[in-house]
Structure formats: structure tokens, C-alpha cells
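Quiz preparation item.
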């Protein structure tokens, strides 16, 4: 029979081993959980290329432009965005009174497909209505404009947004204004299932207009290339709920240009349930082994 002192020592060693293993399991799970919770979604179309300025000026002028992005995780939470445009009128940044960001899915989702279209096509366009939206007026987003600098875009679209057959206007020529980047924080984040979306920002400026600047298409560094990368679309109240392609429909030509718009997104990817379950099963297995060894000791 084992002496009492030896049995006590064995139990003490087993207890220490059990506590050490438990600590390791806790640390592993903490690291695993921290990694899953860390910001892991980012997307960018890159810097403005100076080719096109698309009016996207909010509730008063009722013009909105959109460009697309894709989420592939089961759930992506968007927490912030950055988009770049021109502000005309030589007004101070304090004249920016409202910023809105809407997320649209790709047609035919959220759309009436039984209507007669007033545009050449709706294939690969934003939907009729938004999937979700945030606004500075409701406190669901906050924004910080960057210090402005003078910028000229080679072409622009403002008034020439017309239904068929008069959609081809060629654009309205160069426009110059203050280049401003809008750093947006979604105080109420967007929660998006895996899908193809359009990002649609609008900015209301007292005494001026906001034009969203184009970015290279195809996307180049420092942008995030993806496929299929759709072109930018635009509409006004006269066209709503339809949309026109800025390059193919409005500018036209052979070949017609296509445009992206300058924006980036950041957020978090929610871990898949199997990943969490796998971690839990692994921890349970380690704990079971530890308990068995403790009992044997």
C-alpha cells in the first residue's frame, strides 16, 4: 500500500496538472474568441482617378449614385466607411448638413419585376428600394470630413439622367470643386448576410452640390479586386425606381467607359457556428481527458 505522503503528493501533482491544463484551455479559447471577434472585413475600390464625378446629393436634389461590393461570410458587420467626392460652391465644411448611406441589393431583389422599365436594362443594377440605411439626422452614423483640396474631374453627371430613349447625354463635362473624404462611423452597424450589394452615399450641402468621384475599373492597388465588379449606377426622382449605368448608358460610346466609385468599407466577420462548435468540442475533449487522469491519479 502506498504511503499516505506519496498518495498526497500524487493527488497534489494531479491537481496542479489539472489546474494548469484548465488554464491552457481558457487561454486557447480566449485567443480563439479574440481572433474571431477582431476586425476582419475590409474592402476598397482605390483612390479617385479624376475621370468622372457623379452627383449624389441627398434629399433636396434627390440624386443618388451607387457602386457595388460583395460579402462572402455568413454574416458581415459593417462598422465604418470612407468615400471621396467633390463639393462645389466654395462653401465651408460646416455647410455639410446631412450624410446618408444606404445599402441596396442587386436587382431583382427588393424590386417590382412586373413593371415596364424606363431604362435600357436593370441587369446588375441596384434594387428598386434599399435593403438598409443609416443617416446622420437619425444618429445612426457620424461623419468627419477631411481637409479639402482643389480637384477637377474630366466629366460629370448631374442633370442628364433621363428615361429611355433620351438617356444618352454624354455627360456634362468637367467639374471643379473641393475634394473631400468622408470618414463615416456607423453607430448602428450594418449586419449583412453573404450577398452582392451596392453602397449608396448621399451628402446634402447648403450652397453647394456633392459629386461622388470615380475610381479605377478594373480595381487596382490599393484597392481590393473582386469579381464580378459591376459598374456605377445613378438615378434621380424622374427615373426612380429605375437606374442608369453612368458609363454605358449616359456617357456611351464604342466602347463605352465603365466607372467604379471611390469608397472603402471596414467591419467584422461573424464566425461560422461550426467554428465555435469545433472549439467547444475541442475544449470539452481536453477537459474530459484531464478529469479522467485526475480520477486515475
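Solution:
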Amino acid at each position: 500500500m502506498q504511503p499516505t505522503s506519496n498518495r498526497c503528493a500524487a493527488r497534489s501533482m494531479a491537481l496542479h496538472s489539472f489546474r494548469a491544463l484548465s488554464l491552457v484551455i481558457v487561454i486557447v479559447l480566449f485567443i480563439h474568441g479574440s481572433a474571431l471577434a477582431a476586425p476582419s472585413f475590409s474592402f476598397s475600390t482605390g483612390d479617385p482617378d479624376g475621370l468622372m464625378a457623379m452627383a449624389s446629393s441627398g434629399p433636396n436634389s434627390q440624386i443618388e449614385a451607387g457602386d457595388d461590393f460583395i460579402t462572402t461570410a455568413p454574416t458581415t458587420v459593417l462598422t465604418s466607411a470612407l468615400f471621396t467626392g467633390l463639393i462645389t460652391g466654395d462653401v465651408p465644411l460646416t455647410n455639410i448638413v446631412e450624410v446618408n448611406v444606404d445599402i441596396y441589393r442587386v436587382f431583382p431583389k427588393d424590386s417590382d419585376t412586373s413593371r415596364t422599365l424606363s431604362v435600357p436594362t436593370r441587369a446588375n443594377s441596384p434594387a428598386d428600394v434599399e435593403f438598409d440605411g443609416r443617416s446622420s439626422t437619425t444618429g445612426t452614423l457620424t461623419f468627419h470630413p477631411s481637409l479639402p483640396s482643389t480637384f477637377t474631374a474630366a466629366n460629370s453627371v448631374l442633370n442628364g439622367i433621363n428615361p429611355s430613349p433620351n438617356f444618352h447625354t454624354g455627360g456634362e463635362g468637367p467639374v471643379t470643386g473641393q475634394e473631400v473624404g468622408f470618414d463615416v462611423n456607423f453607430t448602428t452597424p450594418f449586419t449583412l448576410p453573404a450577398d452582392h450589394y451596392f453602397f449608396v452615399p448621399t451628402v446634402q450641402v447648403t450652397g453647394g452640390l456633392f459629386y461622388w468621384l470615380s475610381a479605377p475599373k478594373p480595381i487596382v492597388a490599393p484597392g481590393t479586386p473582386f469579381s464580378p465588379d459591376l459598374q456605377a449606377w445613378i438615378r434621380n426622382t424622374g427615373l426612380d425606381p429605375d437606374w442608369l449605368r453612368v458609363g454605358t448608358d449616359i456617357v456611351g460610346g464604342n466602347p463605352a467607359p465603365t466607372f467604379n466609385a471611390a469608397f472603402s468599407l471596414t467591419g467584422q466577420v461573424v464566425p461560422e457556428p461550426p467554428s465555435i462548435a469545433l472549439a467547444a468540442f475541442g475544449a470539452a475533449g481536453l477537459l474530459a481527458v484531464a478529469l479522467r487522469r485526475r480520477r486515475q491519479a
